[in-house]
Design goal:
The chain has helices at 2-22, 27-62, 64-79, 86-91, 96-110, 115-126, 130-141, 149-172. It contains 8 helices and no strands. It is mainly α and 174 residues long. Helices cover 82% and strands 0% of the residues. It starts with a helix and ends with a helix. Helix 2 (27-62) crosses helix 7 (130-141), helix 5 runs antiparallel to helix 6 and helix 6 packs antiparallel against helix 8 (149-172).
């Protein structure tokens, strides 16, 4: 079984190359052309990524995250979301790596089997890094005006946060 798993990728690559050769496609040239296109996309999206990551680190370093956490705690309690997860709610739509850091900190502080730890883990799995995704995909496609994409994606994130919190309370209790 382990050999089968180890051979999956090499066999898949060989099969694609063989299929291309049978169809009389210059496989190497197609690979080089695809890599060149990929580098072009990378050059278009890197400025957006740098700006986004810089803004996230400035937000965390300035202390604005802790200030927002204190202001939102009463609303979160009313919605059934543990107030300790407010940092995760604010960071997750912006940065996946920062959200993983916040989630790991919550799990370390409260424990993996606590309500907060479980809720943080489920929130990480049921939401998306909205602004990162929009910056990458819209930047790659050259879309400047996002119109309703950002509000709709943030509503989906909020739904994911609520569903994660409620599912953990339903399945594991308080």
């Amino acid at each position: 079984m382990e050999l089968l798993l180890d051979m999956t990728v090499p066999v898949l690559i060989a099969a694609v190359a063989l299929y291309g050769m049978l169809r009389r496609v210059d496989v190497y040239d197609a690979l080089v052309h695809g890599a060149a296109d990929g580098l072009g996309v990378l050059l278009r999206i890197v400025p957006s990524l740098i700006a986004l990551l810089t803004a996230v680190y400035m937000f965390r370093a300035s202390g604005a995250l802790e200030l927002a956490a204190g202001a939102l705690a009463p609303v979160l309690e009313a919605l059934g979301i543990p107030p300790e997860t407010v940092g995760l709610l604010l960071v997750r739509p912006v940065s996946g790596s920062a959200a993983l850091g916040v989630g790991a900190d919550l799990i370390t502080t409260y424990g993996p089997d606590s309500l907060v730890g479980r809720t943080a883990a489920v929130m990480l799995g049921s939401t998306e890094t909205t602004f990162y995704t929009i910056a990458v995909y819209f930047g790659a496609a050259g879309i400047v005006k996002t119109r309703y994409a950002v509000p709709a994606a943030l509503c989906a994130d909020l739904t994911g946060f609520l569903a994660a919190s409620w599912a953990v309370r339903l399945l594991f209790g308080t």
